[in-house]
Design goal:
The structure is a single chain. It is built from 12 helices and 27 strands. It has 444 residues and is of the alpha/beta class. The protein has 2 domains: 18-149 and 299-374, FAD/NAD(P)-binding domain (3-Layer(bba) Sandwich); 158-295, FAD/NAD(P)-binding domain, CATH 3.50.50.60. Strands 7-4-3-11-24-23 form a 6-stranded mixed beta sheet. A 4-stranded parallel beta sheet has the order 15-14-13-19, covered by helices on one side. Strands 8-9-10 form a 3-stranded antiparallel beta sheet, with no helix packed on it. Helix 1 runs parallel beside helix 11 (356-374). 43% of the residues are buried.
Length: 444
C-alpha cells in the first residue's frame, strides 16, 4: 500500500438538507478526494507554500515567509481554533500565569502578516502531485512545511488495544499536546486531595526534555502550599536527568524532600491503567492518580506523508527522515520539517531539543532558505540555538535555565559546542518572562 496515498479518500460526509418554511436551502456539497479547498486563481505570481501545523514553528514560518516573499501564497492549516503555548503551560497549571497568557487568537496574526489561516485537520498527502488532503478538501503546494509537533505513542504500551489507550488518555492525561488535556490535568490537580501521583517520563527524545521535571516541581509546590498529603513519584527511564540534573536534584532535595521521589532507570515495561499499576525496570508501582506520558514520536502528518526515518535494521525511528542542516526531507526536498517532529541531527547529541525556542529558530531559518531558493540565491546552512527556563518554586518564584549552542565542524557535521546552566535564582524569572514575551510578540 502506498502510504502517501492511503488517506486521500476520506469518508463522504453525511450532510442533510435543512427545511425552513417558505425557504429551501440546498445542502453543502459533499467533500471527496477531488474537492479543492483553495483552488489557485491564476492571479498569484509567487510560490504557494502550505504549512501544516499552527504552533510555534508553523506560525513563525508563516509570518516570515510573507515578510521575505511578499508575493507568496502562504497557507497555514491548523485544526485547533486557538494557539496554545506549551512553554509556560506548567506555570498555568498552578495559576502563576493566566489562560490568556498561554492561549491566543490566531486570526489576528494571520490578518496582520497576510497569510491564509484555515482551521481544518490534515488527513493525508499526495507528494507526487504536491497536494495536502484535509477534512475540507485538498490544497496544492509548491513547498510544504510540516510543523505538527508530536504524537503520543500509546501503541508502545498497549499495541492495538485502542480502548486501553483512550482510557489512559481520558483518565490520566499527560497534557503534552495542547489544549483540551491541559484543562483536564489542571482540573485533576485542583481536585487532588491526597495520595500518590505517578509521573512517567517518555524515553528520549521527547518534547521539551526538562519540562516534566518543572511540572513535577510546580505540582509539588501546589501540594506543599495547600498542605495536601500527597507525593509524586517520577519514573524516569534515563539513568540521570541530564545537563540540568544538579539544578533539579537540588530542588527535589531542598524544596520537596517529602513530596518528590525521583526513580532513575525506570523504563516502563507494562501499564495497567484500570488497576492503577505500572511495572518498570526499577520495580513496580501503584498509584492513586497519574500523569502518564507514553513515548513521543513525530506527529501523525509525518507518518501520513511517508517521511519517517528508519534505523539500521529497517524499523521506523518514529521521527522525520531529514537533512540535518537544511531541514528538508531526505526523499523530497520540497518538504521541510520544523519543530518537534524533526529527526536525527548529529552523532554527538542525536536530536535538537524539542522545544519552542528551537521550533521558532528553525522556522525562521526555513523561511530564509525558501526565500533563497525562490530568488535563485545560494541556500546557506544556518543552525539554531536552544534556551529553556524552568520554574522550580512558586513562592518565592525561582527558576533554573540551560542554553545550548551548535556549529558545523570542518566536515559539515552538526556539533553541540557549548552548554550554559544557571542555578536556581529569582533573577531568572524576569529573564524567562522577557524571553516568552519577545517570542509571542514575534509571531502572535
Amino acid at each position: 500500500m502506498d502510504r502517501r496515498n492511503f488517506l486521500l479518500t476520506p469518508p463522504i460526509m453525511a450532510l442533510g438538507t435543512l427545511a425552513v418554511p417558505s425557504l429551501s436551502l440546498a445542502a453543502p456539497l459533499a467533500i471527496h478526494s477531488n474537492t479543492q479547498l483553495l483552488p489557485r486563481t491564476g492571479k498569484q505570481k509567487g510560490p504557494r507554500i502550505v504549512i501544516c501545523g499552527g504552533g510555534w514553528g508553523g506560525m513563525t514560518s508563516a509570518r516570515y515567509l510573507r515578510e521575505l516573499i511578499p508575493n507568496a501564497d502562504v497557507i497555514l492549516l491548523e485544526k485547533n481554533p486557538t494557539f496554545w503555548s506549551g512553554p509556560m503551560s506548567n506555570k498555568w497549571l498552578v495559576d502563576i500565569v493566566s489562560t490568556d497568557f498561554v492561549n491566543h487568537d490566531m486570526i489576528h496574526p494571520a490578518n496582520k502578516y497576510g497569510y491564509t489561516l484555515v482551521n481544518t485537520e490534515v488527513i493525508g498527502f499526495d507528494r507526487d502531485k504536491k497536494r495536502v488532503q484535509t477534512a475540507q478538501g485538498s490544497v496544492d503546494y509548491d513547498y510544504l512545511i510540516l510543523s505538527g509537533g508530536i504524537r503520543n505513542a500509546y501503541d508502545a504500551w498497549f499495541g492495538n488495544d485502542l480502548y486501553a489507550a483512550e482510557y489512559t488518555r481520558k483518565h490520566f492525561p499527560n497534557a503534552y499536546i495542547p489544549n483540551a488535556e491541559m484543562f483536564a490535568l489542571k482540573n485533576k490537580l485542583n481536585a487532588f486531595k491526597g495520595g500518590t501521583i505517578v509521573m512517567t517520563l517518555p524515553p528520549p527524545p521527547h518534547r521539551c526534555p526538562p519540562s516534566p521535571y518543572e511540572r513535577a516541581c510546580l505540582m509539588a509546590w501546589h501540594i506543599k502550599k495547600n498542605n495536601i498529603p500527597g507525593k509524586i513519584i517520577i519514573l524516569d527511564p534515563k539513568p540521570k536527568i541530564g545537563p540540568i540534573g544538579e539544578g533539579y536534584k537540588a530542588a527535589f532535595e531542598e524544596l520537596y524532600p517529602d513530596i518528590i521521589t525521583h526513580v532513575p532507570n525506570a523504563v516502563v515495561k507494562e501499564v495497567d491503567p484500570f488497576n492503577k499499576h505500572i511495572k518498570t525496570a526499577a520495580g513496580d508501582f501503584d498509584f492513586d492518580d497519574a500523569v502518564l506520558m507514553p513515548p513521543h514520536q513525530a506527529s501523525d502528518m509525518v507518518w501520513y506523508a511517508d517521511l519517517i526515518g528508519k534505523d539500521a535494521s529497517g524499523k521506523p525511528t518514529g521521527w522525520a527522515d531529514m537533512h540535518p542542516r537544511l531541514f528538508t526531507a531526505n526523499t523530497d526536498d520540497n518538504v521541510y520539517i520544523v519543530g518537534d517532529s524533526m529527526g536525527f541531527i548529529s552523532d554527538q547529541f542525536g536530536h535538537y531539543p524539542k522545544s519552542g525556542h528551537v521550533a521558532h529558530a528553525v522556522a525562521k531559518i526555513v523561511a530564509q532558505n525558501i526565500y533563497e531558493r525562490t530568488s535563485g540565491k545560494e541556500v546557506k546552512a544556518v543552525l539554531p540555538d536552544n534556551l529553556c527556563y524552568m520554574m522550580v518554586n512558586g513562592d518565592p518564584q525561582e527558576e533554573i535555565s540551560v542554553k545550548f549552542e551548535y556549529e558545523l565542524d570542518a566536515t559539515g557535521k552538526v556539533l553541540q559546542t557549548q552548554i550554559d546552566m544557571d542555578v536556581r535564582s529569582a533573577d531568572l524569572v524576569q529573564e524567562d518572562f522577557n524571553w516568552i514575551k519577545s517570542r509571542f510578540n514575534d509571531f502572535l
